[in-house]
Amino acid sequence: MSDTLTAISPHDKRAQQQLDALLEQEGIRRDANLDYTCGIFDEDYKLVATGSSFGSTLRCFAVDKSRQGEGLLNQVLSHLLERQAERGLFHLFVYTKCDSARFFKDLGFYEIARVDGALSFLENRPDGFGSYCRRLAKSRREGRSAAVVMNANPFTLGHRYLVERAAAENDTVHLFVLSEDMSLVPFEVRWRLVREGVADLPNVICHRSGPYIISAATFPSYFLKDEEAVIQGHARLDLALFRSIAGALNITARYVGEEPSSQVTGLYNQVMARYLPQAGIACRIVPRLAAGGQAVSASTVRQALHDGRLEDIRPWVPESTWRYFSSPEAEPVRRAIREQAQVRHY
Question: 92: domain range?
Fold first, then answer.
């Protein structure tokens, strides 16, 4: 039997149909976020195995039931590892169903965390997460410590209000900025604006999140049955990892912003409020800062920038954020926001 391993073009309709059918056979659906997909085709051009990548994550693996046990998954994974290496990506991650985790462990991956009955999160370094926590522990401080996690896309007075509240109630605040470049405002800009925006708060320590605080943009949804299961799975995995991060930094509270208009954020906050206390970590849900009768949010700021209403954002952002967006330096980012069809998150 002669098999061929090749990239699957998004324009190859026959291959795309086979891809969806093979994934469905395994009880999963194609993930919305993929940047490369490969497959093994038999001599009749039938797709018998597949796998994909998105950034540094590997996902959407499936092998035809009639061909399981032939080492096809190993071939697909080896191909993806080679391609990732060509792209300069060597630290890789896999999200998979719990009952599939053992296959990836046999192929050199190590489980970081799991949500029983839902998913397993693995990496290809035996001590990646451990060394990350040890690096964080170097900034551990005595006294009461809290955490805030934000995307800050971009940093607003609402974000500032949340950090101020945490800083007033704790000796130290560890502020994590999601470092994946999946937002309209690039990470290096978001990182700079956050640091400038809290520079006057001496008990706030800023951290790049790295790959272990997981954003909604990279969390996979293909093996969870519906949107609510995706949000719950994401939140529970986030919290499974966060327990170890909190232990490294002696964090006893996590502050999150309330968002009445966002079903996703509301459900995420519910999961945190339920599970964080079980790990000895308080969940502080802080009401949103309002200005002119409207909640201050990054979505509102992006919408104003999208509509070309630059001056409107001034009451909603710190001076450092305003300086950036009103400068020529920000024109590429303003243009990217203007050109985006949808800039609000729900």
Answer: 4-129
